[in-house]
Design brief:
Layout: H1 3-11, H2 27-37, H3 41-44, E1 79-81, E2 87-90, E3 97-100, H4 109-113, H5 126-137, E4 143-145, H6 150-157, H7 159-168, H8 170-193, E5 198-202, H9 215-221, H10 223-234, E6 241-245, H11 254-259, E7 264-266, H12 275-282, E8 287-292, H13 297-300, H14 303-316, E9 324-328, H15 338-350
Parallel strand pairs: 4-5, 5-6, 6-7, 7-8, 8-9
Antiparallel strand pairs: 1-2, 2-3
Helix pairs in contact: 6-7, 6-8, 7-8, 8-10, 14-15
Length: about 350
């Protein structure tokens, strides 16, 4: 099977020649692995990573000047501003930063309305199209991230402020959500027109035990927006897959996700959700990408623990018949021993389709 054939089979619950597998690494972990392996991990490991590229700004594009929202922070060491205008202040701990929300002190709706939200309606799709063509020519699948909606909204407004807006002044919150929803819609539609196999979406809307806010509130403000994005894409490519990411326990909205067109759930954290229970409930309506814990197995397990975990989840979820891509449940952080990463990919390679590992573990 080519990577594209394997991806489409996995996502469609059809037999695969091997379990698809992949991983992502923070830069410190990538450097550690490169030293350990003698080459870049993306070269060393045979991963099922697709190709793709987002929309690009037109030549001469000048982004909004968000510095005016961070006058008190300018000049500080390790301070930067992202493309949405959110400030990031590093404190010397790897890649982690403190969010400085530009609208955190907004007291009038006019301040929300007047914010220069990034807009991609006039952005170009030439690199998006060529990336899909290159991926398909190489036998790879094409997927592209269509953006966050909820996460971008709270980062611009401020986490507590945004949640309070949802409860006390809903129009403020919904106005911000709509700005990012439109951006996601433009990417999704362009990807569908270009023949992409999958659009990647998602928002972290859950914690370890439950939703960040009530599922009914999610259904009121988030569900219709993602439904709008997915429906717009499927007008042009009805069979496009939709990958949705949320950390934590999203048990309460699983049926809602399927209802709006999600076909692949990431990461299905075993510390928060029982993958077997989710599969029993959802059947073949929802494929999984993830399932190998980055809070447990990757940082704190041993290579043998890793091999047993991979085998167990592959057996439990009937990996030979599709529906499972094995991957860490998040990007791999610096504390993960490189031996465990090696063991993960070795364990994936050792799987056979007779219900046990080739090594008999």
């Amino acid at each position: 099977m080519t990577r594209r054939e394997r991806f489409l089979a996995f996502a469609g619950f059809e037999p695969v020649d091997r379990v698809p597998r992949r991983a992502q690494f923070v830069e410190d972990q990538r450097r550690t692995l490169t030293s350990h392996l003698g080459e870049d991990p993306f070269t060393h490991f045979d991963m099922d990573n697709g190709g793709g590229h987002g929309l690009r700004p037109p030549d001469g594009y000048v982004p909004p000047d968000y510095a005016v929202y961070h006058q008190d922070m300018l000049g500080q060491e390790e301070f930067s501003i992202d493309d949405n205008g959110c400030g990031h202040l590093g404190h010397g701990f790897y890649h982690f930063t403190e969010y400085i929300s530009p609208l955190r002190n907004a007291a009038r709706f006019e301040e929300i309305e007047g914010y220069p939200f990034p807009k991609n309606a006039t952005w170009l799709d030439d690199t998006l199209i060529s990336a899909a063509e290159e991926a398909h020519t190489a036998g790879d699948f094409a997927w592209v991230f269509a953006g966050h909606i909820y996460e971008n909204a709270w980062q611009v407004r401020g986490y507590e402020q945004f949640l309070m807006d949802l409860l006390t002044q809903r129009d403020w919150a919904e106005f911000i959500l709509d700005q990012f929803c439109e951006n996601s819609l433009h990417v999704a539609v362009a990807a569908a027109k270009a023949g992409y196999d999958c659009i990647m979406t998602g928002d972290d809307v859950a914690n370890q035990n439950a939703m960040m806010f009530g599922p009914d509130l999610w259904r009121e403000v988030m569900k219709p927006r993602w439904a709008k994005v997915i429906a717009a894409a499927r007008q042009y490519k009805p069979d496009i897959h939709v990958w949705y990411h949320s950390d934590g326990n999203v048990w309460d909205i699983l049926d809602d996700l399927v209802e709006i067109g999600i076909t692949i759930l990431n990461p299905v954290q075993p510390e928060c959700l029982d993958p077997a229970a989710v599969r029993k409930r959802m059947g073949k309506r929802l494929a999984f990408d993830g399932c190998i814990g980055t809070q447990t197995t990757f940082p704190f397990g041993t290579p043998n623990t890793m091999r047993r975990t991979v085998l167990e989840i592959a057996q439990t979820l009937d990996a030979p018949n599709g529906g499972l891509m094995l991957s860490p449940t998040h990007v791999l952080e610096p504390e993960v021993p490189p031996e465990n990463v090696v063991a993960f990919f070795q364990a994936c390679n050792e799987l056979d389709w007779r219900g046990r590992g080739k090594t008999g573990i």
